[in-house]
Design brief:
Layout: H1 26-31, H2 33-44, E1 47-53, E2 56-61, H3 64-73, E3 78-80, H4 87-93, H5 102-112, H6 118-122, H7 125-140, E4 148-149, H8 150-167, H9 173-193, H10 206-232, H11 239-245, H12 256-287, H13 289-302, H14 317-329, E5 336-340, E6 344-346, E7 349-351, E8 356-359, H15 361-364, H16 384-387, H17 408-425, E9 426-430, E10 438-440, E11 444-446, E12 451-456, H18 463-466
Parallel strand pairs: 2-8
Antiparallel strand pairs: 1-2, 3-5, 4-12, 5-8, 6-7, 9-12, 10-11
């Protein structure tokens, strides 16, 4: 472990608002957590002390250099924050990657990495485009000016994609049951995120009972699929197959319990972040017609009306920049946390052991020292010229270091495909007067949803490409 000695000269405490005894700044933060963190950053700078909850000190860090120190330079001193250690998180994810630590986390990551190699993701493209095409076909039957709840549409889409990619299941009873049950689990976990007092999960309250029943439903279906796959020995090319065949250095495979934990983890991470990111991207495009027009021009030139392939994605450069910029402006995983094992020093400040360090992509992604026009939606933020000298952790929608999200390539591929395929056929327009307000829970939601209408568009592909185009 890289250790820094803590001398009396640098044992100062970072500035910050005056908190209350026992609960620190948590009551103020819980009312509107994102706005509170934005305001204290503006007032106190890149390292802010937020008081203590009980004996645990809280800090907010937003400078990319400090994030690199935590994620990379001294990563052995940092574990997942205590917000990942609640009863509801343990019940939901078990010992999946989102919750596990130490040697177990390293073993599981090694076993799972091959399933997320770029080449493996490429094999899933046909399934992804098929499911996207099915949604587009449904949309064609909807009259123009009919409002749609776009977050609901995008989450439905990404849920179907991730279940097909993970479990090889499409349009079945298991699909419907898993999705419905998971939505109950997600709402339950979200409601407890900023609760100062959390009732024990084992108390038989109506909410607790609904949560536990939903978890049982998810587990029952996943275990059934795992056992049926083992018994059939069928050669299905999905992530479950990769997990079943994966062996560690001792030749051991994952237990059914561990497979369940990782399937739940990947399902949650695989659809929620992608679906919500897509929702914000459609909103941003609806507010920036010049960006949308440039997107259409690229799609018409590169694709000529046909369905994109894995080989097309590197040529859809502006589409990718839109995706990256959307995730900069509205990072769905808007808050991460870490806890330090030993005392440490960050930016000249003493950080006592077992503190909770809050890392906020939403704020760092708007840091004026690293982003020109940080509040503006400008895909050119990700042009090679403007990205060249930017610190690595000025942008971290998927976390960083050894705990960076394994599914980042999967998510970026999926989102880029959805944007490309939908924008070839539709413009999405925000319903006039619809309120747009952030709701920071487990993920960065739109408080009132995003009610949008569909406007069909014609392809303006060059004639030489249009003649050979195939339609969705």
């Amino acid at each position: 472990m890289v250790k820094q000695s803590i001398s009396p000269v640098v044992s100062k405490t970072p500035p910050g608002p005056r908190g209350l005894p026992i609960v620190g700044c948590f009551p103020q933060m819980a009312r509107n957590p994102l706005q509170f963190l934005i305001e204290v950053t503006r007032q106190y700078g890149d390292v802010v002390h937020l008081g203590a909850i009980g004996s645990q000190q809280l800090y907010l860090l937003t400078n990319p250099d400090d994030l690199k120190y935590i994620f990379v330079d001294n990563n052995k001193n940092y574990t997942k924050g205590t917000n990942f250690k609640g009863q509801e998180v343990a019940i939901t994810f078990g010992n999946g990657l989102v919750h596990s630590e130490g040697e177990l986390a390293r073993r599981q990551r090694r076993l799972m990495q091959p399933a997320f190699h770029r080449e493996r993701i490429g094999l899933l493209i046909t399934d992804m485009t098929k499911i996207i095409a099915q949604m587009l076909e449904r949309w064609r039957g909807i009259e123009e000016n009919t409002p749609l709840d776009i977050p609901e549409q995008m989450l439905d889409l990404t849920q179907k994609i991730v279940i097909k990619a993970l479990l090889g299941v499409e349009g079945s009873r298991e699909t419907t049951e898993i999705i419905q049950a998971w939505n109950t689990v997600f709402v339950y976990n979200s409601e407890r995120t900023w609760a100062l007092i959390k009732m024990p999960v084992n108390l038989p309250t109506p909410k607790n009972l609904r949560f536990k029943q939903a978890i049982r439903t998810v587990e029952t279906n996943i275990y059934r699929i795992i056992r049926e796959r083992k018994q059939s020995g069928s050669d299905v090319d999905d992530m479950l197959a990769m997990m079943l065949n994966a062996r560690d250095e001792l030749g051991e495979t994952m237990s059914e319990q561990q497979l369940r934990d990782e399937m739940v983890t990947m399902f949650a991470a695989g659809f929620e972040t992608s679906g919500t990111s897509l929702s914000w991207i459609w909103y941003l495009l609806s507010q920036h017609p010049k960006v949308e027009q440039k997107l259409h021009e690229e799609l018409d030139t590169v694709l000529g009306g046909r369905t994109p392939t894995f080989e097309d994605l590197p040529n859809l450069k502006y589409t990718k920049m839109i995706v990256e910029e959307g995730m900069r402006v509205y990072p769905v995983a808007w808050l991460n946390s870490r806890s330090n094992i030993d005392d440490d020093e960050i930016a000249g400040y003493h950080i006592p052991s077992r503190s909770l360090l809050m890392l906020c992509p939403y704020i760092t992604h708007r840091h004026p020292s690293f982003w020109e026009n940080p509040e503006e939606f400008e895909p050119e933020h990700f042009s090679p010229e403007r990205s060249a000298n930017r610190p690595r952790y000025a942008y971290f929608p998927f976390g960083g270091g050894r705990r960076q999200c394994l599914g980042d390539i999967f998510a970026l591929t999926e989102i880029q495909l959805v944007v490309a395929m939908v924008a070839q056929h539709f413009r999405l327009k925000l319903v006039p007067g619809h309120p747009v307000e952030l709701k920071p829970l487990l993920t960065l939601q739109a408080r009132y949803g995003l009610s949008m209408t569909l406007e069909r568009r014609s392809s303006f592909a060059p004639a030489s490409r249009r003649d050979h185009a195939s339609t969705v």
